[in-house]
Amino acid sequence: MTTTFITENRLKNIKMLILDIDGVLTDGRIYILPDGEEVKVFNTLDGHGLKMLQRAGVMVAVISGRASKASEHRMRQLGITHYYAGVSNKIASFRDLLKKTNIQPEECAYMGDDLPDLPIMNEVGFCAAPPNACEAVLHSAHFITRKGGGEGAVREICDFILSAQNAQGEEFLA
Question: Alpha carbon 141 to chain centroid distance?
């Protein structure tokens, strides 16, 4: 049995994709302007992939250790209503999210890049990491994307989930 088959098997029953922001939806860099305003760069391919997932009936949520106006604005643009920001205990937010959505841990996919992501990664049915993640996360991931965080890594996972669930097609073109 190939690794790809095992990975695709894990994705067939995914009902929710949960993401970290810094290092996953962004490249992890934070630009701070002289007035203290933070600027982050998000990839439009990731955004479109998340929209396609939502149209296919897969819920998208975000749990981030940092809060920022830029991230909050982007989550609103993407229609992500389950947004936990500035949390120090990601696993507590994860459990709250499961309770609110009535989704089981094995029905969740998670993508993270650093140590605070490990507790969730250890509970979900599928976990992924960008190649620039810390070593412990890379060892725990079921799948490591080719592209880095903020460079289309999330889109890879979105496409992978859609493909595993046979949910891709013209109806997802915007």
Answer: 13
